[in-house]
Structures are given as C-alpha cells and as structure tokens.
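In these records, each integer encodes one residue's backbone shape. Here is one protein:

___
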Amino acid sequence: TISVPGIDTSWMLTTDSCGGFRQSTYDSSVHYAVSLSTTWDKSKYYDCPSGYHWACTEEGRKIFRNDRSTGQYVYYNQCGWSEYTYRGAYRYHFRFRDSATTRAYKHAQRYDQYYIQYTSDTSSFAGVICIRD
C-alpha cells in the first residue's frame, strides 16, 4: 500500500497474493483489508488505504443484500489462504467502522453479495471492509 500522511495502514497484512486487499467480485468499489492481528480491538480505528474509507454497517446493508450461493467467497480459499488460514492464523470476521456498537461483520466464507452477520466476538478477526471514496 502507498504511504499517505495521516493514513496508517501498518495494521494490515500485505503478504498474501492479493496484497491483503482483495477486491469484491460483487461490487468493485468494495475491498476487504486483512489485519496482521487476529484479535479485534473495538476501540481502534483501522485506516483503509488512500482513496478508500472504512465502511459503516449501513453502507454494508445497502450493498450486501441477498443470500445467493454463487460467486466467490469474501476471503475463504482466496489469495493464497487455505480455507480461513493464512500463515497459521485463523481469520473470518471482517468488521465495519461501527461494529463495536452494531456487532456487524462480513464472514470470510460467505459469498461476496451475502448479507452481513452479527457477533461481538473479538477473536478470528480478519480485517475491515473498505469502500472506494
């Protein structure tokens, strides 16, 4: 990722075959940014790369609106991952900016267009959902 003053993407894992920033096959404005840590810090702000912002739950609800079982998974078996695992770490919750309140997330093994889901679990953190500005 490109370094921009005021944007800190040092939290991101960038070594998978997608550079830790996989574009959705359902909506090209959506990218999934992968975290180095597998523990979600609810109080942390996770910057998206320049030109993107960390999506809120309402944005996710408008984009991810169906339960079709077709297409590609969010990150499961994508970009060099083996199922949910990359380099020995298990990840499946991609979080929204307001997930600490809404509990919303995208599951790594759901199809790109699939509805968002809800849990307050802080483990198995995969990263965040970014939307092009």
